[in-house]
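2024-03-11 09:14:02 INFO receiving multi-entity request
2024-03-11 09:14:02 INFO entity count = two
2024-03-11 09:14:03 INFO echoing inputs for audit
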Amino acid sequence: MYGDLAHKLILDAKRTQSLDKLPLYQDTLVRSIVREIRSLQKEADVLTEHASQDDDRVNQGQLFVCHLCMRRNKRCLLAYQRLRAERLDELVWANNDISKEQMDNLSPQEQDYLKKYNDLVSEFKGPLEKIDLGGSLEPPVDVFIDVRVLKDAGEIQTEYGVFNLTKDSQFFVRQADVERLIQQGYLKKL
Amino acid sequence: MDFDDILKEFEASKRPGHNEDELRAEDLQRLSTAWINERMVPELLPYENELIDRVLIRIRKQVEQIELNSIELQTHEKEIKLRLVVVESELDRVQFLIRSYTRTRLQKIDKYSLYIRSNDTESAKLSNNELTYMERHLELLLELYNSQFLKNLPESLQAIDETGGGVSMIEEPDLDRPVFVKALADNVVDVDDEEVELTTNGIYVLRYRAVMDLVKVGDVRVL
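2024-03-11 09:21:47 INFO inference complete, emitting structure
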């Protein structure tokens, strides 16, 4: 029935909301929905031609249903893509490396969008470089914090000297210096 | 720092009782207020251009100072260290305020970009940087929609900013969302057909629409 495919797509979008990673882009589904819209349009065109002859209630009703279905399908497509685009935006702001599996789940167009949005965000950050816009959105409490090293991260250089981050060691460091490493999962705040 | 800033600073220093320290404290207060307002209010507020510029200049100076001082750190260990920690906590907090302020604005801009773009008063609330960001982001999104499916739809269905057909595609801020406010002056506001009296220091929950003008003049504070 008309609209069933779009319903499937929306279910996928709903599932996406509760997942950490974006699932595979539903290429075939999207294509079939587009095809459905086009065949509806054809039907609507035929109906419009006939309708011009007399004032036929059945015909008008059919035409109305066609248009409603097309519009609904379009809204579902947009909603699906918007949700994914928003998730892509979040990925860019989180500023972590994006895993290969995640990349493989994106359509080529989405990958392209991701790259361009990334450039746009860097451009926006430019004039505000001193603020580190990608940094934590939790209010800061302490300048210095205790961290434990979860994975070897090599040496880091700070204004307070050089730290050699070997696994399981513990340091008292400036939060701003290690923010990125915490985000990436190398360090844990104690 | 450009010529206007120099003039402003000069004027500020002439005003009695308005030295740089007080100005700084005042700006910080205003930044916190701007941040809270932006976060709690449904619509986008005008960008605090001058305020942010002033604070950014100070941040730059402070960062330079810290870098300068940490070079001397080895020689006068203790006294400098304490001062550095104080300056850095301050710096962290101010940076956080601006970061959160900017990101909150970007969220709203992303959400309401079609609405903002269609409306000149709304667009005027954006900084130049934000304006470029919004235009480019919309462009990218449209490109994505087009290449994924939109360009394959019948022409009559290709618009993404239609308002007819029962559902508007342009999302607008919900001005009827309730907000918590504290009255800083006595006022009377209209809510539906009723008048509500606001007494100084009272705390109220009201629809944003009822108090939006008072928020802008500073007669109520958003909590």
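2024-03-11 09:21:48 INFO post-check: The longest helix of chain B spans residues 77-111.
2024-03-11 09:21:48 INFO post-check: Chain B touches chain A through 43 residues (CB under 8 Å).
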